Amino acid sequence: MASTAPVIMRIMASSIQTAKLAGGIIRDVLKQGDLGIVDKGKNDPQTEADRSAQRCIIASLTKKFPGVKIIGEEGGSDLNVCDDWLVEDLDEEFLQKSCPAEWRDAKPEDFVIWVDPLDGTAEYTQGYVEHVTVLIGIAVKDAAVGGIIHQPFYQQPDGELGRTIWGLKGLGTGGFTHSLAPPGEFIITTTRSHSNALHQQALNAFPATKILKVGGAGFKVLQLLEGKAHAYVFATPGCKKWDTCAPEAVLEAQGGFLTDINGKNYSYNADVEHVNRQGVLASVGENHSELVYKIPRKVREAVGV
Ligand SMILES: Nc1ncnc2c1ncn2[C@@H]1O[C@H](COP(=O)(O)O)[C@@H](O)[C@H]1OP(=O)(O)O
Ligand SMILES: [Mg+2]
Ligand SMILES: [Mg+2]
Ligand SMILES: [Mg+2]
């Protein structure tokens, strides 16, 4: 099965296992205590967990899929890793599923894998570990098609740490229970560490009954999927393609939308600009275009249409 399944199914099944191992590395770095924080820019920390998790993910996926382009947040990594960090196995349960017809013939050169080894780094360094996710996004040509969102610090009912959510357009999602957000309310989830005046202007334009401020693009999209919020608003540049590729694919596989603040999906081919200049707007589905028109024109003009 493993060797005959379509490439996209093998990439997804391998990414599920790889994200779990990366999650273990992230927990280990925290346990050992020295985070090795480096500032990449304003409000843009990197830790030993970001660096090590990226090495594990990119080394494992490069070895398994040598013809596939992989782009990671932390730049060029040393792929010479110990055997313990090389993930060989595929998630067998996922591999049993049938591949949607539209992706069956996609070839290695059609893919770009966008890796955010640790989303929510600021929150990780501040102890908000439940906001942290590992994101592996799978694009085919321009589109975000598949995604893995792994939560290293999610506590399972049996006490075990870690949960892995996946989504593939045309197939569906797994690893969590989908819920609808409460009707009659309008709950927005948004940044807690990258706000500015422009973003605040957009937030003020929504009739929100509650605003949740949490870290990470992955965690905010999980809040939409689990019915904790109706919309995710981030009306300024700051997020990059590795922040949104996996969340977009998972959310859209569940019937939602993740676009820029003009309602347009980003492109995820290997040549795109990494920054998502036009911000992020995500919702569970029914009224996405109405949300787009709530954002003031001057905010839209400031980020560029
Ligand atoms: N100004 C910024 N500089 C660097 N990364 C940003 C910025 N804004 C957002 N991000 C990335 O997008 C994620 C979601 O943003 P926020 O938590 O503010 O809503 C952040 O966790 C961070 O990813 P990462 O933690 O992987 O560096
Ligand atoms: Mg970062
Ligand atoms: Mg990120
Ligand atoms: Mg990151």
UniProtKB/TrEMBL annotation:
It is an enzyme of class 3 (hydrolase). The keyword Hydrolase applies. Its cofactor is Mg(2+). Mg(2+) binds at E73, D116, L118, D119, D243. GO terms for biological process: phosphatidylinositol phosphate biosynthetic process. InterPro entries: CysQ/Inositol_MonoPase, Inositol_monoP_metal-BS, Inositol_monophosphatase-like, Inositol_monophosphatase_CS. It comes from the Eukaryota. Signal peptide: none annotated. Keywords: Hydrolase, Lithium, Magnesium, Metal-binding. It catalyses: 1D-myo-inositol 1,3,4-trisphosphate + H2O = 1D-myo-inositol 3,4-bisphosphate + phosphate; adenosine 3',5'-bisphosphate + H2O = AMP + phosphate; 1D-myo-inositol 1,4-bisphosphate + H2O = 1D-myo-inositol 4-phosphate + phosphate; 3'-phosphoadenylyl sulfate + H2O = adenosine 5'-phosphosulfate + phosphate. SUPFAM superfamilies: Carbohydrate phosphatase. Pfam families: Inositol_P (PF00459). Its EC number is 3.1.3.57, 3.1.3.7. Belongs to the inositol monophosphatase superfamily. This is 3'(2'),5'-bisphosphate nucleotidase 1.
